[in-house]
Amino acid sequence: MPIKNYITTEEKKILQHELKYQENPDIRERILMLLLRNDGKKYQEIADFLGCSLRKVAYWCTHGDPNNLESLVDERMKGNFHKATPEYIELLIEIINKEPKEFGYEYGRWTAERLAKHLEQETGIELSSSQVRRILKKTNLCTFGQNTA
Prior knowledge:
Blueprint (H helix, E strand, L loop, with lengths): L8 H13 L3 H14 L4 H8 L3 H10 L22 H11 L15 H12 L5 H10 L11
Helix pairs in contact: 1-2, 3-4, 6-7
């Protein structure tokens, strides 16, 4: 049987405020789970209402602490560790604007794979060609310059 009104009035006000202003949709969903649980809804009712799994509702209703909104943050939200530092990106931009021959290469055109290997030698940071492509796309350098072979 669900316990109704287990959250204090102050906690409820804080949760309602965060529900309105929290930018992260996952946190908003978890806050809503706690508020619905506080209104006496069963896990299955909450899951059906939100369109998520019963397991997810049970987890967050059990582990979510109304006093500590940080308890609603999971490890995935903290983001991946980004190997590409601002200095790496700056160097990438510098290099892409130069001919590969300036660095002693025989080819006349950069590819993402060649850039990744060259930057690994220069910085010690190993990235895949797809990661380099992603960085180039984010920095609006989707093409590899006008260099031709």
